[in-house]
Amino acid sequence: MPKLTIRDIDVQDKEVLMRADFNVPYDDDNNITDDTRIVGALPTIQYLLEGGAKLVLCSHKGRPAKKRESLEPVAKRLAELLGQEVAFACDTVGEDATAKRAALSAGKVVLLENTRFEEGETKNSPELSKQLAGEASIFVNDAFGTAHRAHASTEGVSKFVEQSAMGFLIEKELEFLEGKLESPAKPFLAIMGGAKVSDKIQVIKAMMDKADEFIIGGAMAYTFRLAQGYQVGDSLVEPDFVELAKEILKDAETKGIKFHLPTDTRITQEFSPSAQTKVTQPYAEGGGIDDGWEGIDIGDAAIPEFEAVVARAGTILWNGPMGVFEMDNFAIGTKALTAAVAKSDALTIVGGGDSVTAANKFANPSDFDFLSTGGGASLELLEGKTLPGVAALSDQ
Ligand code: AMP
């Protein structure tokens, strides 16, 4: 059943607790180095404030076990962006938070301290969830990046309020990663790359019933090549997934899915920005990558082949780079593929994490229909899993 969105609720004079994703990077002096996530939360925050909510914001920041980071710099930045005062509570559910929440009037906002300073957060403690809910009658979740985690501030809290609704960010993520992929314009092409087969192979499996074509690049391709019996040298592979890769290749054949692996590959003997590379065609009869050599990008012949597949697609879901794109000498394939997807007239959805970084680095973000903000959360959604932070919201 569809879930409530903030469009469905009346927040006038009500205390609303909103879970945002303010997990933004700081430099050594606690200056925010990238405020994209704060800017991304503004539409929901502004909508709630204009609706007359007494708004209580909360978020996690980093991993306090490694480094304890306060959200105070976020309150400052948010105040600048909103053009209004943002109170900051120096605790999450303690005295200061309670007092500052009680002092709120309609259209005013307070940000609570880092939810992960509370031990109960990641344990989804009912006690903490209840304290977080406090006097709020409404919970709004707009933190897509943590919606796949059942934590007190993402899931538990919804049991202690009257209504829970999603904000605009989560609504948009669901629209593109679920809604638009229900009956995609054909051919539907899934481009999968990156390093971790273990993270993405379940997505590939889930997509087998929907996608017409696949492009597999990045290190992931070598696990599939290993499954086909080729020698992959020192390339990064996940041997535990070779069997599943074999199953997928067989399944693709049975179902008539076009499963494109790079016909050639760029290899190196040294993993560095100044390393020499060469392109080989190791997947011909008897071919293979020699030991001591590692595949780090798709090859020169694979590029136009993949560009042709991209050009004929009606819908493109892209998750994962074609190579080690962080180094220029290994980024040729990712650059070309990013440009091809950006140029395409298809509906283009970029599935979060490193692909979004590549999209921003090698193209104009506005060339894509949607750039997802959640790495793990997008993958779980694409696998067909229910996200706890969405499941806990009130039904419409
Ligand atoms: P993932 O987290 O699975 O999306 O993987 C992203 C990472 O995969 C990026 O940091 C890339 O540098 C890396 N990557 C892509 N292709 C390769 C490759 N052939 N060998 C090693 N790492 C790769």
What does this structure look like?
- The chain is α/β, with parallel strands linked by helices and 396 residues long.
- The chain has two domains: 165 residues, Rossmann fold (3-Layer(aba) Sandwich); 203 residues, 3-Layer(aba) Sandwich (Rossmann fold).
- It is built from 13 helices and 17 strands.
- Strands 3-4-2-1-5-6 form a six-stranded parallel beta sheet, with helices on both faces. Strands 10-8-7-15-16-17 form a six-stranded parallel beta sheet, with helices on both faces.
- α1 packs across α2 and α6 packs parallel to α12.
- The radius of gyration is 23 Å and the shape is elongated.
Integer count of domains: 2
Biggest β-sheet, characterized?
Answer: 6 strands, parallel
Here the CATH topology of the largest domain equals Rossmann fold
End-to-end distance, in Å? 7 Å
The share of residues in helices is 25-40%
Number of strands: 17
Summary keywords:
alpha/beta, Rossmann fold, 6-stranded parallel beta sheet, 16% strand, binds adenosine monophosphate
Summarize the structure.
This protein has 13 helices and 17 strands.
Write the layout of secondary structure elements.
Layout lengths: L14 E5 L16 H15 L3 E5 L13 H11 L4 E2 L6 H8 L6 E3 L14 H8 L4 E4 L21 E4 L1 H10 L10 E5 L4 H11 L5 E4 L3 H8 L3 E2 L9 H14 L2 E3 L4 E4 L8 E4 L7 E2 L4 E5 L3 H10 L3 E5 L12 H12 L3 E4 L3 H9 L7 E2 L3 H8 L5 H4 L5
Parallel strand pairs: 1-2, 1-5, 2-4, 3-4, 5-6, 7-8, 7-15, 8-10, 9-13, 15-16, 16-17
Antiparallel strand pairs: 11-12, 11-14
Helix pairs in contact: 1-2, 6-12, 7-8, 9-10
